[in-house]
Amino acid sequence: MKKQTKVWLSLAIVLSLLSLASGCGNKEATDTNKDTNAGGNAAQKYSGPTGTVSGVVSFTGTPAAPKKIDTSADPVCGQKNPNLAVEDTVVKDGKLANVFVYVKDGQTADGKKLSDFTWDTPTTAVTLDQNGCHYRPHILGIQTNQKLNITNSDPTQHNIHWTPKVNPEWNQSQPNGAPPIEKSFARAEILVPVKCNQHPWMRAFIGVMKTPFFAVTAEDGSFTIKDLPAGKYTVVAWHEAPAPAGTEKTMEVTVPASGSGKADFSFGAAATTNLKPSLEIVPAIEVPIIGTRH
C-alpha cells in the first residue's frame, strides 16, 4: 500500500471516530436536556383536594321567537317533527340552555397549571344522534381522543359534516338504519361546527377539551363542573347566538377544597358585560363535498 494511501486511510479513520464521539456527545446532551425539561414540566396525575364550579346562565330580555323550519324538501322530517324550529336560543323561564361552559386556564391552590397534569381519557363514548331532523344534543363536550358515536334515529338519510380549524375536516353520509359511525378528535378546539348538507337547518357544536372540566347548561340554565382541583380559574361561557345576545363571557372563580365556586352568567341584548367575540358562524352553501369520506 502506498504511503499516501495509508495517510488518507488513517485520516479517514480518525475523522470517523471523532464524528462518532461527537454524535454520542450530542445525543447525550439532547437526552439530558429532554430529561431536564421532562423533570421540570412532566405531566402527572392530580391527587390533591378538589371542588366544583356551578352556576346558572340567564337570558336578559325577551328572546326572539324560534324560527319555524320549512321541511318541504324532506317531508319525512315534518312528519316526525311537525314543530321543527331553530335551536340557537332556547330560553325557559329566563334561563338559557345549550351554553358551553368550560375552565379555560388558571392555577391550582399550590400554584400549578392545569396543563401540568394529565387527565384520563374517558372510556365511555359520547353520542351525537340525528333525531327528528335535529342533532341531539345540540351542544356537546368531549375530551381529546374520546370516542364519539354518531347515530341516525330518523327514517331518512343524513350527512354529518364538521368544519374544524385545527382538526381534520370530515364529511360522510349516514343512511337510515346504518350502524353508528365512530370518530374522535386529536386536538382541543372550542368549538367545532357540525352541519348536515342534506338538511341545512341542522346544526350542532362540539367542544373538544384536553381536560374534563366542561359542562353544557340544562333546560333550567344550570351547570356543574365536578372534581376540579382547588384553585383560581378563568371560567368561560359560550353561546352560539351572535353578539350582543350571545358569543362568549368570562369570569374569575375561586374553587375551595371540598367546596363549590359560583359562576352565574347572563346573555341577552341587555347583558353585554365582559362580552367577547368567539366563534363566528358563517352560513355555508349546502353542497355535499365529494371525495372527503373516510
List keywords for this structure.
single chain; alpha+beta; 2 domains; five-stranded antiparallel sheet; five-stranded mixed sheet; 2 helices; 22 strands; globular
Class based on secondary structure composition and strand pairing:
alpha+beta
Apparent shape: globular
The overall pLDDT, averaged over residues, is 83
**CATH homologous superfamily of the largest domain - what is it?**
Cupredoxins -  blue copper proteins
Helix content: 10-25%
Radius of gyration: 26 Å
Low-confidence stretches: 20-40, 272-294
- Tell me the fraction of residues in β-strands, as a range: 35-45%
Work out the number of β strands: 22
CATH class (first level) name of the largest domain: Mainly Beta
User: What count of structural domains?
Assistant: 2
| Termini separation | 64 Å
CATH topology assignment of the largest domain: Immunoglobulin-like
Identify the strand order in the major beta sheet. 16-5-18-19-22
Task: Provide a descriptive summary of the structure in words.
The structure is a single chain. The protein is an alpha+beta fold. The protein has helices at 3-41, 75-80, and strands at residues 44-45, 50-60, 91-92, 95-96, 100-108, 117-118, 126-130, 135-136, 139-143, 148-152, 158-162, 170-174, 181-183, 189-195, 203-209, 214-216, 222-229, 231-239, 247-255, 260-262, 265-268, 275-276. The protein folds into 2 domains: 1-38; 50-276, Cupredoxins -  blue copper proteins (Immunoglobulin-like). Helix content is 15%, strand content 37%. The strands form 6 sheets. A 5-stranded antiparallel β-sheet has the order 16-5-18-19-22, with no helix packed on it. A hairpin with a 7-residue loop joins strand 14 (189-195) and strand 15.
